[in-house]
Write a structure and sequence with these properties.
single chain; about 150 residues; alpha+beta; OB fold (Dihydrolipoamide Acetyltransferase, E2P); 2 domains; four-stranded antiparallel sheet; 2 helices; rod-shaped; acetyl-CoA carboxylase activity
Length: about 150
Amino acid sequence: MEVSQLIELMNAVSEAGLTDFCYEENGVSVKIKKHPEKKIVASAPVEMIAPSAVAAPAQIPAAAPTAKDSDAAEEIGGNTVKSPLVGTFYSASAPDAAPYVQVGDTVKKGQVLGIVEAMKLMNEIESEYDGTVKAILVKNGDLVEFDQPMFVIE
């Protein structure tokens, strides 16, 4: 079978609306399969909204460290453990697990205080100091910024 004949055969199969075709001649086999086209059907007309008309989300979590966080850490006094990266803070290893630390707990240098999730990686936040947890400045699920105060240890 010549290439031109093969092309004619392909066009004929396509025009006939066939999705499968097999042809065999003199030990040569030709199989043609056409995947049906996917059609997108809109159920209702789509209305375009100008960007300025879009309402702001009702709740936007505070992500950036504020002067209030730094002031609170300074007011309490002690050593501040800051976030080493941007991400989501978790106080426990699982939603139903007990928090790593609570205010009043005694901690050792290297002890895990919490987790910051960044790009689907869980990063343990370890205490840089021995002492007692005087304040936890972030809540479970809060977004934290780089260098944001998270714990005060005295």
